[in-house]
Write a structure and sequence with these properties.
Strand content of chain B: 15-25%
Largest interface: A-B, 11 and 17 residues
Shape of chain A: rod-shaped
Shape of chain B: globular
Oligomer: heterodimer
Largest sheet of chain B: 6 strands, mixed
Mean pLDDT of chain A: 82
Radius of gyration of chain A: 49 Å
Number of strands of chain B: 8
Number of strands of chain A: 9
Order of helices and strands of chain A: EEHHHHHHEHEEHEEHHEE
CATH class of chain B: Alpha Beta
Distance between the termini of chain B: 50 Å
Order of helices and strands of chain B: HEEHEHHEHEEEE
CATH architecture of chain B: 3-Layer(aba) Sandwich
Distance between the termini of chain A: 47 Å
Strand content of chain A: 5-15%
Mean pLDDT of chain B: 84
Largest sheet of chain A: 7 strands, mixed
Chain lengths: 493, 168
């Protein structure tokens, strides 16, 4: 489904993705920096995952290497000390010196103790039943060999060399062969285990590679999606701005054309001599006066907005008495209020301190708020204007001027948009209530330029209350003539 | 059996100057040690005499006796030769040469240079018998009683003089 709108001769068309468009609107509202930060966070998270994965693979490889080295060393030591046990025993045969024979016997016993320890260690570290069974068998075979070895040693030391040789040939050699076979079997099992570990490591490395490629692809896709969403949000912002500008132009044209049509018609009637008599002339003069004033206000509004937009607007901040100023503003709007059939209820607290602000700015703000209250005030046709002091935290205070109506109210979903330039509620447009969409935006900008702010509380079909928050002047001279002087219109430099 | 000539015994007694029985405070017991697996616990002095002269060659369980001696000239050996064999070094050598020649003695004693060597030898050979100063005995060997007397007993006969300390 496509939606289109025209800007002059150009035709904009955009494929619609509701969820993405909503995301794009949110992003365009809160700045695409947020999305970049999110994308950076995502990439950082992925980097952490990659590093963790690599570390795990590295640790696994290290473990395998160290296991291989230690295992080989263990089996190698077992083989070496078993041979050493036998070698020392046989060396004792080669001498008749009892001292040397005792020394060889001692060496043989030292070596056999190392073998016993090695077998016990092998049994403790056996991870498979096959290895455990082998450890038990090796232990038993070694004990059997040692019994014969002890007899051989005893015979050698006694001097019965022939008996020693006989014992060794018939008992020692077969027993030691069994030990040697057991050690060979241990090495074979260890090789099997090492092969299995190596296969696991290769598989693990392959899995890590796949994961890495997947993560990189994900990162790439995430980056593309981020760029795409940012581009789309910018495009959406541009289109939205263009749309609002178009609506603004249409609205302004309409707003200008209506009084112009009235003025033209009245001028034609006067020129054609259709208006006779003082009463009729006065009536036509009033029409001309009213319509030209409307036109002037509209043009002023546009110019003021333009000046705030490009920063040309300068405010003369000073200490101001609020009550007289409100009186003047209400008097200015009296005709508007009366023509619309509204009544205004002023509730100005006594002993209000002076506010810190620009006279023309405050007047412009309040005129816009009163104008809106009249425009959207509904059938009850009553406006309440309050001026009061509100305490803030840490004993600070501020001066508030609120304009409340009992009109159509604002939907909660629109509250975040109503201060956007050119924004007009679809509901208001449907009701054919004319406007430029600049009033609230302008009022907000002026309030903030004076160091204050503009807030709104609204309930649909119950009315709205707009409040201008102003700083209280401290140690400033109060302008006593505010009650008599009319605020000059905002000037454009 | 080899006969110990009385005249030789008298001569040996003259060559051995110590009066051991009169000066027991300056002597150290000489323990007779055997393999721990050997079931013998006591030997009479006469049995000891016959074993060290090679007259008795088997234990009561039939195992062959292997005699372990220290190097010639060692005080322990001198003590054994004097107190047990009643011989001096030459007489002992001649006795064994004669015995081996006539076939009355089957195996000559094993000579070991150190007390540790003696201990290790006896540990390795089930039928071995030797001697050590009591202070050099450890758990690897078993001490036998002589005439039901342990080396700690004051009446124990095998004693050797302590090394003399020269006074300044």
């Amino acid at each position: 489904m496509n939606y289109q709108f025209k800007t002059g001769s150009r035709r904009w068309a955009m494929k619609r993705f509701p969820l993405l468009d909503r995301l794009a609107v949110v992003i365009s509202r809160y700045n695409s920096t947020l999305l970049l930060i999110m994308a950076f966070g995502g990439v950082a998270l992925i980097a952490v995952l990659v590093i963790r994965d690599l570390s795990a693979a590295n640790a696994e490889a290290r473990q395998m290497y160290s296991g291989t080295v230690h295992g080989l060393q263990r089996i190698g030591e077992l083989q070496y000390f078993a041979q050493e046990t036998r070698r020392a025993t046989l060396y004792a045969l080669t001498t008749e010196d009892s001292n040397l024979q005792v020394e060889y016997a001692d060496q043989s016993r030292d070596a056999d103790q190392r073998v016993k320890d090695g077998i016990a260690e092998y049994g403790r570290q056996a991870s498979h039943p096959e290895e455990t069974a082998l450890a038990d068998r090796l232990k038993n075979d070694w004990v059997d060999y040692l019994k014969i070895r002890d007899d051989v040693l005893a015979s050698i030391l006694e001097g019965s060399t022939g008996e020693a040789v006989n014992l060794d040939l018939h008992g020692g050699v077969p027993a030691f062969d069994r030990v040697r076979q057991d050690l060979g079997e241990a090495k074979r099992l260890y090789d099997l285990e090492a092969s299995r570990r190596e296969a696991n490591l290769i598989a693990s490395g392959r899995r890590a590679s796949f994961r890495l490629v997947g993560i990189l692809c994900l990162t790439f896709l995430l980056s593309i999606a981020t760029v795409w969403v940012i581009q789309r949000s910018r495009m959406w912002s541009t289109i939205e701005l263009a749309r609002m500008e178009m609506e603004f132009v249409t609205s302004v044209s309409h707003e200008l054309r209506t009084p112009l049509a009235v003025l033209s018609s009245a001028a034609d009637n006067l020129a054609d001599g259709l208006v006779e008599g003082k009463e009729a002339t006065r009536k036509y003069g009033g029409i001309l006066q009213h319509q030209s004033r409307n036109m002037r206000e509209l043009v002023d509004q546009i110019l003021i907005f333009a000046s705030t937009e490009d920063g040309k607007r300068r405010y003369n901040l000073q200490s101001l008495e609020v009550a007289p100023l409100i009186g003047v503003i209400v008097a200015d709007c009296a005709r508007l209020i009366k023509d619309a059939g509204f009544a205004i209820d002023q509730r100005i607290d006594s002993d209000l301190p002076c506010a810190w602000g620009d006279r023309a700015g405050i007047a412009q703000c309040l005129r816009n708020l009163i104008g809106n209250a009249v425009k959207y005030g509904g059938s009850e046709r009553r406006i309440v204007l309050r001026a009061y002091i509100e305490s803030l935290h840490q004993s600070d205070q501020e001066l508030r001027i609120s304009v409340a109506d009992r009109g159509i109210g604002i939907d909660s979903s629109e509250l975040t948009h109503i201060f956007d330039p050119f924004y007009r509620s679809p509901r208001v447009q449907a009701a054919q209530i004319h406007g430029t969409g600049l009033g609230l935006s302008l009022a907000k900008r002026i309030a903030e330029s004076m160091g204050g702010r503009l807030s709104v509380v609204s309930e649909l079909a119950a009315g709205s209350t707009f409040t201008l928050h102003l700083q209280i002047a401290k140690g400033q001279e109060t302008q006593k003539d505010a009650t008599v002087s009319r605020p000059s219109p905002i000037t454009i430099q | 059996m080899v006969i110990w000539p009385q005249a030789e015994a008298a001569r040996v007694s003259e060559e051995w100057p110590h009066s051991l029985e009169a000066d027991t405070d300056q002597t150290e017991p000489l323990a007779v040690v055997i393999n721990r697996m050997n079931s013998v616990t006591n030997l009479s002095f006469d049995e000891l005499h016959r074993i060290f002269l090679g007259s008795r060659v088997h234990w009561s369980d039939g195992r062959r006796i292997t005699l372990v001696m220290r190097d010639p000239g060692e005080p322990e050996r001198k003590t054994i030769l004097h107190d047990v064999c009643g011989m001096n070094e030459n007489q002992f050598k001649i006795h064994f040469v004669q015995g081996l020649f006539t076939g009355e003695i089957l195996v000559s004693p094993k000579i070991l240079s150190t007390p540790a060597g003696v201990r290790k030898f006896i540990f390795n050979v089930p039928g071995a018998i030797g001697y050590l100063r009591l202070s050099e005995v450890d758990d690897s060997v078993k001490v036998v009683l002589i005439d039901e007397l342990s080396p700690d007993d004051r009446r124990y006969r095998l004693r050797m003089p302590l090394p003399s300390v020269k006074s300044e």
